[in-house]
Amino acid sequence: MPLMKSWVDSANAADHPFPLNNLPYGVFSTPGSDPRCGVAIGDMILDMAAAEDAGLVDPGTGPLFDVPFWNEVMEEGPEIWTALRDRLTAILSEGSADRAAAEPLLVAQADAEMHLPFLVSEYTDFYAGRHHAFNVGTMFRGAENALPPNWLHIPIGYNGRASSVVVSGTPVRRPWGQIKGPDDDLPRFAPCARFDIELEMGAVVGQPSDGPVTVAEADAMIFGYVLLNDWSARDIQAWEYQPLGPFQAKATATSISPWIVTRAALEPFRCDTPAREFELLDHLKDCGPMLYDIDLSVTLAPEGGAQTTIARTNYREMYYSAAQQLAHHSTSGCPMNPGDLLGSGTISGPTKPERGSLLELSWGGREPITLDGGQTRSFVEDGDTLTLQGAARGDGYTIGFGTCTGKALAALDDPYAR
Amino acid sequence: MPLMKSWVDSANAADHPFPLNNLPYGVFSTPGSDPRCGVAIGDMILDMAAAEDAGLVDPGTGPLFDVPFWNEVMEEGPEIWTALRDRLTAILSEGSADRAAAEPLLVAQADAEMHLPFLVSEYTDFYAGRHHAFNVGTMFRGAENALPPNWLHIPIGYNGRASSVVVSGTPVRRPWGQIKGPDDDLPRFAPCARFDIELEMGAVVGQPSDGPVTVAEADAMIFGYVLLNDWSARDIQAWEYQPLGPFQAKATATSISPWIVTRAALEPFRCDTPAREFELLDHLKDCGPMLYDIDLSVTLAPEGGAQTTIARTNYREMYYSAAQQLAHHSTSGCPMNPGDLLGSGTISGPTKPERGSLLELSWGGREPITLDGGQTRSFVEDGDTLTLQGAARGDGYTIGFGTCTGKALAALDDPYAR
């Protein structure tokens, strides 16, 4: 599929993240206005609440867009998702008869503040990138025992904390926590000294389930994808995670990009999961290409300094697709709901510059990386801004995710010294 | 404090779970009516939506009770909680001038269906009962290594799945999952063969936090308590839980009792946590009695058979209070919200009949227990009804929790054979 041309000129550049082929869904506000649904097109946002008021968009469902979340659209289901996307494509296409009505409803992205695009019902984070799991396992258990025995048979995941999900741009404060170093006799309560990021994709569940679903059914339940940075306190994690998994180490913040890129927009970029070392059991077996070819990168900019690209990788490096993760999530009968967010797990490629966390990039802090300008980093320092970017490259166009950025703030003074 | 007498006669019996001293909050419906808030008094329920309509209850906040959850009351905060309880006590007291107006608003509990009493925002389950952790650890790692190194320093917890929380009375279907026995070469997908219960208390968070809170602040955020049965698939758990903790093994269902017993009603039963082996760090240190003396029991009734009490213990056996768990939960800055539910972790006492799970009662299935009538049990069998009960015993009165019950249904036929 080539670039689809829009009458919004900025959308027609081959490297623009938001061409007519994309049409990602977000929630925005302008000074003095309430947050409401919008669709990105080039440098602009089509105000969906205004479009609905004007009768330009009417999926026949009753009002959907004058709210600060896309959950209501998700709940309407795949037929409405398709009808809405078709209608938006018609409105914004070059030569559209709707241009005169729609043009006054555009808002410049530069004038808008972005909010979380959906109400996060529950948040699950997986550990389904093989290179990441191998790197972390090698650091902690040696290369022979790097992958846990279950790793090649199920997408390992744990429940995270939905209340800690924030939109790109929200500053993230270095947490305190209980920490015990390998040479300490007793734990102490201190600011995290090994604050890290995790480069992930987030899958947004758009339809409910109330029993086990197949991989194909799971794929059809997914509304879209976002970039996701799962901020991680490695020293807190090391002390707390046995035997019940990460808890406070992952509860400070998880940042997501503000635009949900729909599954429909990503269709041309589907690709297969890697070769399987063990055949997966039937309920998890691949039944079509369900990963996506999405280039990903991470930049780090120190306070007042220029940004350095510290990692480049691709979503196709995952061992399990989001559809497989969602199918696994449902096996127990666990009810899944619109607004559930599934983090892919850290995405790393096979080589050093493809690692999606500082833990891996600095090999546990033993090999600090050097930034442009000469500073070194083992973990995140106060004032650093970390930014994820993602884009699928089509034939003369780009399906971009925008950015997922966050600045690390210094820890509070002792929060219990009152 | 002695029994407070009510004009609702059934409430005045010394062993009735719902005297005037209690006033627990639930959500009920009668045939043909919508679920709405109610307060238990003796064998009756005061219809709070009707009481609000009649002007009998007016906390000055706008309508709170014509909804199927107590979250709106929680959000109003402790002053309203106290004012509401005071007003209900006045209305329902022996000799109350409000009797004539209130009596027509009573509904018999026998005619009511109970629903979840609040919208569960997020659900966290802890592992904070020392005897339980010691028993489980001994089974898997031997008595010397029974407690993980962090156990005596932090209340270990993991995030559970709010969507799987169900009200008492909801049948629970035996899950399928990926299972690999110790002698199997490869995992297989099969119905759970080691389906279990966990006797727990649930603390209902009633006020939000957006940063670290002290133990005293955490205690004040708790709205009330319920009984909680965390259904657990032990064989699924054994295969999946390393390294990121329990996931699908705990996602089939968590049952809670339908009545929130308020913190105010439990005040007379506060008691201390046990002696500390290691002094807790300041942020977790005890600052007053924050456990409660609540007798707990579990019964098992086979399909069509009589029930046997299989365990008796007490909430004071916990090592960490819910306030300590909530304070720990907040250390990372994790935002906590009204409607968050914190499971205490399985409550076991020091002796065999005090064990709060079948895993412990049957010592991993090696020592099946014998029910009245001669049947034996290692784990839950299809058709079994498991019931938790809890009550604090006062001077001539009881603060009861009602029951938390659920019947185990047979697994589905292979859910993927379609």
UniProtKB/TrEMBL annotation, chains A, B:
* Cofactors required: Ca(2+); Mg(2+)
Q: Which domain of life is it from?
A: Bacteria
Q: In which pathway does it act?
A: Amino-acid degradation; L-phenylalanine degradation; acetoacetate and fumarate from L-phenylalanine: step 6/6
Please name the GO terms of the biological process aspect recorded for this protein, alphabetically: homogentisate catabolic process; L-phenylalanine catabolic process; L-tyrosine catabolic process
Ligand binding (Mg(2+)): 230, 250, 254
Give the UniProt keywords, A-Z. Answer: Calcium, Hydrolase, Magnesium, Metal-binding, Phenylalanine catabolism, Tyrosine catabolism
Fumarylacetoacetase-like C-terminal domain span: 124-403
Q: Which InterPro entries match?
A: Fumarylacetoacetase, Fumarylacetoacetase-like_C, Fumarylacetoacetase_C_sf, Fumarylacetoacetase_N, Fumarylacetoacetase_N_sf
GO molecular function per UniProt: fumarylacetoacetase activity; metal ion binding
Q: What is its EC number?
A: 3.7.1.2
Gene3D superfamilies in the cross-refs: Fumarylacetoacetase, N-terminal domain, Fumarylacetoacetase-like, C-terminal domain
Pfam families, A to Z:
FAA_hydrolase, FAA_hydrolase_N
Q: Where is the active site?
A: 132 (proton acceptor)
Q: What class of enzyme is it?
A: hydrolase
The record places domain Fumarylacetoacetase N-terminal at 21-117
Q: Which residues bind Ca(2+)?
A: 125, 198, 200, 230
Instruction: State where substrate binds.
Output: 127, 141, 237, 241, 346
Q: Which PANTHER family match?
A: FUMARYLACETOACETASE
* Entry protein name: fumarylacetoacetase
Q: Which organism is it from?
A: Pukyongiella litopenaei
In the record, what lineage is assigned to the organism producing the protein? Bacteria, Pseudomonadati, Pseudomonadota, Alphaproteobacteria, Rhodobacterales
